[in-house]
Amino acid sequence: MRNRTLPVVETPGRDGLAGRLFDLIQAPLRWQLLAAGLDLGLFDRLDPPATAADLAGSLGLDATRLGRVLDALAAMSLLDKTRGRYGLTAEAAPLLRADGTRSMRDLLLTLPRLRHGDVAGLLKDPGPAPAPDMAAPAFWDGSANSLRAFHRAMGAETARHLLSLLPEWPAARRLLDLGAGSEVLACRLADRHPQLDITVFDLPPMADRIRARLNGRPVTVIAGDMNETDFGTGYDMIWTAMTLYYARDLAGVLARIRGALAPGGVFVTLHEALTGERTAPETHVTGRLVPALRGQDRSFDDGTIAAAMTEAGFTRIDSRLVETAFGPFRMDCGRG
Ligand SMILES: C[S@@+](CC[C@H](N)C(=O)[O-])C[C@H]1O[C@@H](n2cnc3c(N)ncnc32)[C@H](O)[C@@H]1O
Question: Which residue ranges does the record assign to the O-methyltransferase dimerisation domain (predicted)?
Answer without folding.
Answer: 25-96
